[in-house]
């Protein structure tokens, strides 16, 4: 915990936002800011980007970039570019300013001074207890309790289903509860935050006769991002919910994939791991054994290289050189003439 707090203090001291020039008249924005501010910033951009009508010609990413410009200029709306007279968007700009909404899932003990119980920041992940307390210090904290339509543990007498179970959209309490316990998209290896996901009925809801279809209760609802929500309804995957809130997905090839159970609360529901057995060797003995193993490996490697070198030497052939025979010198008779001849 102390090391985590120190790293947190150093990271907080290194926060920054920079703007640098790019090609083609564009610029890049790079920064490092506290996670809760980043989530609030991301949520405000998403809110403005989704405020235009369906006839807007820009992509979602383009609208997010334009929303940043609107915020910088002091505007509270992102004007739709459809230029239609019947555009339903309110362009008056009179939007009630409110504090940004940041979802932090904590236990009661986390908010107590001195606690080291971590928390979960939506869209970011696990944060330290001290970080969570700093966020909650100046926030309007809303306590979330298990809603009645979350289907508590079965009792001896059957509990009647609430009236909200026959309504297509879940209530606010159930909606919040499901996103808290999910944490993110329930599709394997997807980390889209739960508050950016759709709540989908595992057993399809019957709009004609709700009593005959899937109920709007916690055990029949799962959080899926928009892409995986569409993939689930494409008919290429079969979804089977399990009693522990995990989901088994079966592909067309018959391969099964099981999601994590209970999302953020899975770690609180799993039994503690069994205690390990007696150590066979001490740390010093492990270190000595590792050194011996490395030396043995090194000897084998040297022997292998020596054998390869000897084999190359054996296969090499050198040309045989024979000494040259001395050539007889021819004596020239210059007579009695004195030099030079």
> How is the quaternary structure best described?
single chain
| Rg over alpha carbons | 37 Å
Tell me the overall shape. elongated
Helix run count = 8
Low-pLDDT runs: 152-157, 267-277
C-alpha termini separation: 107 Å
Structural class of the secondary structure composition? alpha+beta
How much of the polypeptide forms β-strand, as a percent range? Answer: 5-15%
Helical proportion, percent range: 25-40%
Strand ordering within the main sheet: 3-4-5
Major beta sheet, specifics? Answer: 3 strands, antiparallel
Number of strands: 10
What average pLDDT do the residues reach?
78
* N-to-C SSE string, H for helix and E for strand: HEEHHEEEHHEEHEEEHH
């Amino acid at each position: 915990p102390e090391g985590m707090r120190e790293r947190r203090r150093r990271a907080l001291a290194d926060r920054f936002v920079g703007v640098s020039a790019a090609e083609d008249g564009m610029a890049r924005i790079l920064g490092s800011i506290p996670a809760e501010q980043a989530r609030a910033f991301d949520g405000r951009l998403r809110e403005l980007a989704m405020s235009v009508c369906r006839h807007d010609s820009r992509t979602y990413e383009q609208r997010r970039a334009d929303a940043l410009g609107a915020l910088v200029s002091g505007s509270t709306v992102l004007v739709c570019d459809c230029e239609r007279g019947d555009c339903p968007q309110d362009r008056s700009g009179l939007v009630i300013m409110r504090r940004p909404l940041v979802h932090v899932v904590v236990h009661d003990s986390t908010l107590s001074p001195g606690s080291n119980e971590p928390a979960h920041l939506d869209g970011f992940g696990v944060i330290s207890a001290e970080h969570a307390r700093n966020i909650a210090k100046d926030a309007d904290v809303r306590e979330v309790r298990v809603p009645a339509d979350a289907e508590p543990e079965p009792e001896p007498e059957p509990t009647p289903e609430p009236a909200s179970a026959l309504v297509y959209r879940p209530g606010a309490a159930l909606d919040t509860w499901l996103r808290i316990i999910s944490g993110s998209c329930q599709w394997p290896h997807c980390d889209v935050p739960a508050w950016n996901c759709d709540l989908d009925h595992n057993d399809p809801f019957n709009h004609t006769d709700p009593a005959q279809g899937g109920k709007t209760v916690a055990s029949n609802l799962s959080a899926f991002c928009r892409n995986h929500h569409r993939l689930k309804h494409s008919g290429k995957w079969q979804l089977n919910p399990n009693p522990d809130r995990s989901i088994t997905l079966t592909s067309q090839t018959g391969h099964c994939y099981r999601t994590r159970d209970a999302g953020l609360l899975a770690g609180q529901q799993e039994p503690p791991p069994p205690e390990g057995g007696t150590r066979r060797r001490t740390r010093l003995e492990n270190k000595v054994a590792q050194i011996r193993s490395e030396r043995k490996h090194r000897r084998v490697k040297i022997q292998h290289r020596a054998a390869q070198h000897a084999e190359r030497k054996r296969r090499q052939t050198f040309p045989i050189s024979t000494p040259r025979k001395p050539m007889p010198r021819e004596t020239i008779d210059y007579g009695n003439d004195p030099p030079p001849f």
